Amino acid sequence: MSFAFLLTTLAVVVTPGAGVVHTLAAGLAHGRRASVVAAFGCTLGVVPHLAASVTGLAALLHTSSVAYDVLKYLGVAYLLHLAWATWRDKGALTVDEGGAPRSAGRVIGAAVLLNLLNPKLTLFFVAFLPQFVPAGQSGAALRMLQLGGVFMLLTFLVFVAYGVAAAALRERVLGRPRVLGGMRRLFAVCLVGLSARLAVA
């Protein structure tokens, strides 16, 4: 396994994005278990991009500006929807004082959709992974699957670390409504910023 691959992959995974925001919010809202479930969902959301890369579908997105733009603006719209729902305190990223936690299925579904509508992941697999698969080498698809598996493992571990850290702060913020309100709005603003960055990418 190339050190350059591991280093670059770790840099990509650690950089905060919509998945990190989702995992942090899950940890703050519902604790450690919810953050791990959210991290799993975000990791699961990588699978379609990896499959597209291996089968060549990602190349279509890379060469077709229309297909890329459609996926990109669907992602922008979904991020804005989450931002509005979070601001209004009734969405997937609500940071609240308790109540019944959302089901694991809903948390995973929201996380998968976040990454599914992220064209940057597909382009990452198109532009980055092939550099570590020698052209014309037999078993190239298997090699890409292995590298994709490493990417997913690092994604899960890093996101769990983010989520568990957020869960550790949960007890300190749950008794402070003003802090909760400020954090909820901060998550909403972060989502708007991420949507803007995606829109102009």
Q: Would you summarize the structure shown here?
A:
The protein has 201 residues and is mostly helical. It has eleven helices and no strands.
Describe what you observe in this structure.
The protein has 201 residues and is mainly alpha-helical. It has one domain (17-200). Helix content is 78%, strand content 0%. The chain is built from eleven helices and no strands. It has helices at residues 3-14, 18-30, 32-44, 47-55, 57-63, 65-87, 104-116, 119-127, 140-168, 170-174, 177-200. α2 packs antiparallel against α3. The longest helix is centred in the last third of the chain and has 29 residues, at 140-168. The chain is globular and about 60 Å long. The two termini are 30 Å apart.
Q: Cα-atom Rg, whole angstroms?
A: 17 Å
Order of helices and strands: HHHHHHHHHHH
Low-confidence stretches: 90-98
Average pLDDT number = 77
Q: What is the count of helical runs?
A: 11
- Beta fraction: under 5%
Keywords for this entry:
mainly alpha, single chain, globular, 201 residues
Q: What secondary-structure arrangement, pairings included, does this model have?
A:
Elements: H1 3-14, H2 18-30, H3 32-44, H4 47-55, H5 57-63, H6 65-87, H7 104-116, H8 119-127, H9 140-168, H10 170-174, H11 177-200
Helix pairs in contact: 1-9, 2-3, 2-7, 2-9, 3-7, 3-9, 4-8, 4-9, 5-6, 5-8, 6-11
